[in-house]
Amino acid sequence: MKRFLSLFAILFLLLQIPAGRVRASAENGQYAVADARDVWFYGQADESKGLFLLPYTYYVRVISEGEIFSFVEYQDSSDGYKPITGYCLREQLTYVDFVPARPYLKKRITLTYTIDTGAGVGNGSFNNMERTVCFYGAFSSGTAPYYYVYADGVFDYVPAVEPVTYDLNTDYVKPATGETDPPPAAENKGVNGMQIALICVLCGAAAVVAFFVIRGKKPPAPNREED
């Protein structure tokens, strides 16, 4: 009987394990979020070598931490983007202990070029050209705004004609209760594959124990007075 109680106790505890967010591992590396609108991505460990401002609420993957600068990677190879390594000020990053579902901003913008030919010949069919590029972040030179973009194997700056809008991440924001995990409504309460496998093993073990317990029972001794 004690064996049955122990098995059912373990089974109950396993069912209470939530299938929450994926935790950061050594393979994935640690992620840190730009929790401010002025977090720079630097080409070198030098504050005068800023390439662009990281998109607000998006992440970098931390390769190694330093006392002042952290060596990081931004973006991956999907959707036409290319990973880029650089540096961020360690104190400007907010480190998290999970793998974000949407770490990098995927935002493609279309550039339109107009060629002024004056009173030249032709009907001007190719005077207006469009090109789509991958947006990495904003930059400014004096009062002139620019975007740091990538296309066809080349990184470069283009004039910022209009603001780039995008959805913000909120997965790193702690609720008012101080808990790190998302609110219960957004939490996955399902049973994961590992839990199912352990439940099956425990059920099989319980059946084997029950078989031997029943088989090992002796029949009750006969009443001598009745004989």
Summarize the structure.
By secondary structure, the protein is of the alpha+beta class. The protein contains two helices and eleven strands, in the order αβββββββββββα.
3D structure, described in words:
The chain has helices spanning 2-15, 193-215, and strands spanning 30-33, 40-42, 50-53, 59-65, 69-74, 84-89, 94-96, 108-114, 128-141, 144-151, 154-159. The chain is α+β, with helices and mostly antiparallel strands and 227 residues long. The chain has a 5-stranded antiparallel β-sheet with strand order 6-5-4-1-7, with no helix packed on it. α1 (2-15) packs antiparallel against α2.
Q: Could you tell me the number of beta strands?
A: 11
Low-confidence stretches: 11-20, 182-190
Helix content: 10-25%
Mean pLDDT across all residues, rounded?
78
Percent in strands: 25-35%
Helix-strand category = alpha+beta
User: What is the N-to-C order of secondary-structure elements (H for helix, E for strand)?
Assistant: HEEEEEEEEEEEH
Radius of gyration, CA atoms, in whole angstroms: 30 Å
Helix run count: 2
Question: Main β-sheet: number of strands, strand sense, barrel status?
Answer: 5 strands, antiparallel
Strands side by side in the biggest sheet: 6-5-4-1-7
Shape: elongated
Q: Report the end-to-end length measured between terminal Cα atoms.
A: 33 Å
